[in-house]
Each structure stands twice: as C-alpha cells, then as structure tokens.
Amino acid sequence: MKNINYMSRWIPIILIGAFILVLFIMPLLFRSQVQSSTTVELDPEQKTCEIFIKIADEENPITLEEYVVGVVAAEMPANFHPEALKAQAIAARTYVLQSTNYGETEIEPTVARQVYYDQTVRQNNWQSAFSENEQKIREAVKSTEGEVIVYNEELITAMFHSMSNGMTESAKNYSGNDLPYLQPVASTDFQYATNYEVTETFTIEEWNAKLGGSFTLSQVDQLKLTRNDTGRVDKVTLKDKVWTGRDFRTLLDLRSTDFNIDVNGETIVVTTEGYGHGVGMSQYGADAMAKQGSSAHHIINHYYKNTKIEKISCSW
Fold first, then answer.
1. Residue 55 gets which letter from DSSP?
2. 307 lies in a domain?
3. How many Å apart are CA 54 and CA 42, to the nearest integer?
C-alpha cells in the first residue's frame, strides 16, 4: 500500500509532463523537421542565378542579361536577322562570363573587349527606331537567356569580329595561342556586305608619319607582303624594316590584315578585304548564314568548332 500510494502521488505529475510535451515540445520538433526538409529539397543548380557585371567607370553593376542587351545593341546592327542577333547574344554572354570570372572582375566597354551601350545611348543612336530595335534585340537576348558556349566543360574565349575575308582567322595565327575551337572556317560575308572591300590612299608624307620612317615612293613600290594560310598578311618588309601584319594594320589604321599595297603615281593605295581581326564568329557571316536559314545554334557551332551550348548554373 505504501508503494501504491507513493506511485499515485507521481501519476498527476507524469500526466502533466506528458501534456506539456504534447502541447509545446512536439510542435517545435515537427516545425524543425519541416524546416530541415525544405532546406534539403533546395537544389543550388535550380535557383535563379543573380550574376552582375561591373562595367569600368560605371558606378553600379548591372544584371548579366541587361549587359548582354547593351552589347548586342552596340556590336551588331539591329537590322540583322534575329538568328544572327541570338548568336551574338550567346557569344557576348560567354565572353563576359569567361573574361570576368562570372562577374568577379570588371570589363572595359571598348572594342578591345566588348562595346556596351546603355539605354540612353541606344535611344540617341536609334531615335524614332528605338522601340522597334529595342524590342528586337531584347527578344533575341531573352530567347537565349543563360546560354553559353563551352569546350571540355569550360567557357570558351568567344572572340568575334565584323567581317572576314572569306575565311576566319585562327587563334594561333592571331596571337600564337592555338585554341581548338578557334580554327579557320569558310565565311560568306561578302554576299551581303556592301563595304567588304575598301580602298584608302596615302601621300608619302602621311605614310612616313604613320610608320615613323623616311621612305620614298620607289621603296614603297618594292614592299613585300608575306601571307598566312588564311590569306592575311603575316609580315611586311619595307627596305630594312619588318612589321607583323597586325602591327602594320594598327599603324596605318586599316580595317583588316588582309590588304594589298600599290603605288599609283604620287599616291599609295591600300585595299583591304573584311573588317576586324578575323578570329571567331564573323558578324556579317552570321547574318548571311541566318538569311540562308541557319539557326543561332548552327551559326555558333559553325564558327566555334567542336563546342556545345549549355545553360549556365549557379554552381560554378
């Protein structure tokens, strides 16, 4: 009886304790389990990537896709075929992510990297055509949102240029760095480009000022050009001076390294074919391919050999 009475005294306390456990502790445990389950179900690769691009001399970073809109508007004519604009968007997105390590470093808005026009500049440039051009370019960027070019699971250096000479240039010829996806390919830019071949003239005084020499017209007439396998000038020899084709192009401010030089009376005539360094995607070539029925992905695969187009994730 003594033991029974002793246990009887504890029964109410045990019941009260159980009630407290059910009323207060169990809901907390249940809520903790729900929170833990929600956290586990979140997949980092399924989250929306918030990548911001820092443009040199600009106060605030902008979103990646807004940056791509500004690059496509600056780098490619808005009247190009929509598939060419899409290809440009994919290349521009790849280039900025690769060169800035996904936005960790800033990028110059110049021809040495990628030109970028903000909305104010676009409005000033396009005037009454702003709404039409803006919509067209935004649609091209939106339809390729997040798409990038990869080779061996790494972002490529997605170089591009305005207009080739019928063949694109290899990275090895251009910089000495051989990249398997930047090899020469055929490009039919000239079918639609109105300024494929351009002629410039120089007096001997202008010529010497640009080259820093004291050459005569007869010496210029004996100038020798050595070409590489894509038809571009690899070396220029004039009297006892030798330049690379790239350096000579820079000194004379020529449109490309595919040029011919002739002396006509008292004038030096330089004729160039194409426009730009020639490496990677030709923009006029992309437009020509698009007008012939090629998709943006086909254009990318043509100019960047053995690459794949993938969606970026947040797990870089």
1. B
2. yes
3. 29
Burial class (CB in 10 A: 0-12, 13-18, 19+), 309: middle
**Crossing angle between the packed helical segments 119-126 and 64-75, to the nearest 10 degrees:** 30
**Contacts of 123 by beta carbon, 8 Å cutoff, 6+ apart:** 130
pLDDT in tens, 110-139: 988 999 999 999 999 999 999 999 999 999
User: Which residues span the domain enclosing 210?
Assistant: 197-273
Q: Is residue 243 part of a domain?
A: yes
72 and 205 assigned to the same domain: no
pLDDT tens digits, 163-222: 999 999 999 999 999 999 999 999 988 777 778 899 999 999 999 999 999 999 999 999
Find how far residue 198's CA is from the centre of its chain: 27
Q: Which residue has the tokens 């251009």?
A: 174
- Strands 224-227, 233-238: pairing is antiparallel
Residue 226 lies in a domain: yes
Question: Does any domain span residue 11?
Answer: no
Q: Is the pTM higher than 0.90?
A: no
User: Is 237 found in the same domain as 210?
Assistant: yes
Greatest Cα pair distance in the chain: 134
Q: How many domains does the chain have?
A: 2
Distance CA 174, CA 121 (A): 32
Distance separating the N- and C-terminal Cα atoms of the chain: 73
Q: Which residues pair with 236 in a beta bridge?
A: 225, 243
